[in-house]
Every structure is written in C-alpha cells, then in structure tokens.
Amino acid sequence: PPGFPCCMYVLKQCLSGCRHFSKPCVSLKHSGTCPLKAAGSGPCACCALERQLREMLVSADGTALSPDEVVSVLHHISPAFEPGMQQDAQEFWVKLLEMLGEEASMCTLLRSSAAADASAHQAIRVAAAAAATGEPKQDLGSVECTDQIFTGVCQNGRRCMRCQHVTTLGAAEDYKTLMLPIDMVSGCRVFVSCVY
Known about the structure:
Number of strands: 4
Structural class: alpha+beta
Radius of gyration: 20 Å
Low-confidence stretches: 132-141, 187-196
Number of domains: 2
Number of helices: 9
Mean pLDDT: 71
Order of helices and strands: HHHHHHHHHEEEE
Strand order of the largest sheet: 1-2
Distance between the termini: 38 Å
Helix content: 40-55%
Strand content: 5-15%
C-alpha cells in the first residue's frame, strides 16, 4: 500500500528467509515473555517485528501483508524514519539492528533483575563476563539474538602469489553489513564480486 517504505518490505522478506531469525518468530518466543511490554516501557521493536514475521510466515498464501506493526514503532527505531517517506534499506537495516540489540540488552537486564534482587547483580556480571569471552548471551532461538546471527568477523590479509603464505593485517573486526560492488552488465545488475 502507498505510504509504506519499500525498505520495510525488502527487510521483512530477507528476515523471513533467514531461518535462525524467522523460526522463533512463529512461536512468538520473545513477545510471550517481553519484559519491556510487561514493564510498560514503551513500544518494543522486537515484539513488532516478531509479530509481523509470524503473520507473514503463517499466512504464506501469497497475500501481500502491510507492515503496520513495524510502522507503529518506526519513530522508535529512528526519529529520521517517517511513514510515507522512502528510506534507504541499508540505513534502515543498520538502525533496526541497533534497536533490536539495545532492546535485547534491556530485556536481559530486566529478566535478570526480576529473577531475584540479590542475584541480579551477579547475573549481570556473569552476562558481562560471557560477553567479554565471546560466549553467546542467549540461545539462537529468539528474536533477541541479532548480534549472534548477523555479526560477522572480518580479517584483512595478504597472500603471496608464489608460496601462498597469508599474512594477516590488523585485528579482526566485527561487522553487520558488507558492501559488495554491483556492476552493470548488459543492462542487468549482477554481483561481480562473490564471497567464496
């Protein structure tokens, strides 16, 4: 429908195809226990996205679905996004991942403190220690696991063409987006650079 940015449709289609992200959405694992919703702390992008993806996956009859749930939290995702305005899908993706990550952290803290006041500080320290060692904070069965699913590690290096020795350059860096050049070939866009 008019008034909804194409980037929302694009991202919903991509996320529905990402099995590790979309599968938990069908069971509404996050929405059923969302501490942000229970605390009444405003709109939750995790809940909205999870409900939208569930609706899309469950009613796979080819009917176009309006992204109403995501539009309702659009200003919460980023004040720069407004209904009816076209936006850059890359920018929307980055802002959405940031928001989902922030909400996942808040949910983890709220769940930890609700478990027991005495052990809340210990749970937070354990979670911080796990994050420092690279251990996953939660399983991959929740919409809250965006960091584990969508963060990659990039390490630059040089390969000697004679002996094939690889020298790494600098430290490994986390990334959530990977820009690939797209060249025009015979009027069609194709990926020239492939990741193999």
